[in-house]
Amino acid sequence: MAILQALTHAHKEEHPDTIKTKCARAEVRAEKGERAEAAKELRLLLPTAERLLGPAHPETLAVYASLSSCAKAEGNAKEAVALMTHAYEVANKKLGADHVDTKGYAARLKELVGQ
Question: Which CATH number characterizes residue 6's domain?
Answer without folding.
Answer: 1.25.40.10
